Amino acid sequence: MDYVFSKKSKKITTRVALAGLLIFILGVIFDGNEYSSLVTDDGHNYGASQRIWVALLTNGIFFFFISLAVLFFIALQYAAEVSWSIVFKRIYEAMLSGLPLMVGIILLIIVIGQFDGHHIYHWQHYDVSLTEGMDGYDHLLHHKAFFFHPLFYYPVLLFFMGSFIWFARYYRKQSLLEDQEGGTRIHFKNFAKSALFLVIFGYGSSVISWQLIMSVDAHWFSTLFGWYVFSGMWLEGMVYALMLIIYLKGKGLLKEAKGGHIHDMGKWVFALSFLWTYMFFSQFMLIWYADVPEEITYFQARINDYTVIYWIIFFVNFAVPMLFLMDSDAKKNRGLLAMVGCIVFFFHWLDIFIMISPGAMKTEAGLGFVEIGSFLLFLGVFTFIVLRSLATRPLLVKNHPYLEEGKHIHHH
């Protein structure tokens, strides 16, 4: 049985998006903060508009990462010649449908900043003609001028973003062709393409994490940051996929997905939570112990000004999966998985928020109507796009060479 995007589901996702939009607009209208630390030298207070752009960028990146993570996972399954996940393949493919929109939103926000529409990336407004000793000269920004130069920054960003969109469309197209053609020709073609994609992704995932997030704090750098972002991205994608699977199972669909399949998805969420925790601790511990001035600025801004949020993100994203998913049977309990998934999903959104907001908003960031409303808006729109895409093709692939093997995965 295939999935039908019912009127009820359309109403729910639309109402979530509209409720988010309403909350977002109310937050903008009734924003009474003074933003005294966000004033330019000429006296212009850009705090209110900056908060709006930061909220949009945070959500654009978060949902972009969800699509990018499953794109990586699809390629990984081909490269490793895995069979257990074949029954979920169409779910992963549907999640790719939100990728172009999120890429467009991110690029638009960055370009608007280039033309002084906001001050999220302050390197966009630095005068590279300044030399040492001149007023406004910044040694670190001058040192990174080549990386931030528009003739380097934008072509690199467009190359990786374009590559991700191309591969997403390629996998979706080839999946339908395989249904019609059968055999192994398309499978081995995808195997070869996946090897190429994994190389591009290996470089691209780190580079875009520097371009989109780390450059908000342009004076800071960390060699582990790309890995830290990657681990969180992968977990976000797997959690969203798991929530979709639970939703479909609740509607009596995906009958081919037995307890072993759900258990494997639970294991991925459990394992990736530990990977993210390891990256969080490794990056923090090494920088804290070395106490190098250029490296500690990132943590000072978050620990000193956003202490509660910062540490809650760490402990919740580590403790909740560890405590609730340690037992083998827990990874097959759909209700428990849904609860853990919702918690992890929201707190990893907070992780993206805390990566961007302190650098862009200084001490003026907060969780209010603007942030929560924009999150619900993006969640509703993204889920609407994914479910609509899911309904346009059969829920189970037909002629994948590993399909029969993938149907009979058992967990003991």
Protein model, in words:
With 412 residues, the chain is mainly α. The chain has one domain (7-31, 45-126, 141-403). Helix content is 71%, strand content 0%. The chain is built from 15 helices and no strands. The longest helix has 34 residues, at 47-80. It is globular.
Write the SSE topology.
Elements: H1 7-29, H2 47-80, H3 89-95, H4 99-114, H5 139-143, H6 145-148, H7 150-181, H8 185-212, H9 225-250, H10 259-290, H11 293-305, H12 307-325, H13 334-361, H14 369-390, H15 403-407
Helix pairs in contact: 1-14, 2-3, 2-4, 2-8, 2-9, 2-13, 2-14, 3-14, 7-8, 8-9, 9-10, 9-13, 10-12, 11-12, 12-13
Number of strands: 0
Order of helices and strands: HHHHHHHHHHHHHHH
First-residue to last-residue Cα separation: 28 Å
Please summarize the sheet with the most strands: none
Average of per-residue pLDDT values: 93
User: In angstroms, what is the radius of gyration?
Assistant: 22 Å
What is the number of helical segments per DSSP (H or I, 4+ residues)? 15
Task: Describe the global form.
Answer: globular
Which regions contain 5 or more consecutive residues with pLDDT less than 50? none
Q: What helical percentage do the residues reach?
A: over 70%
Approximate strand percentage: under 5%
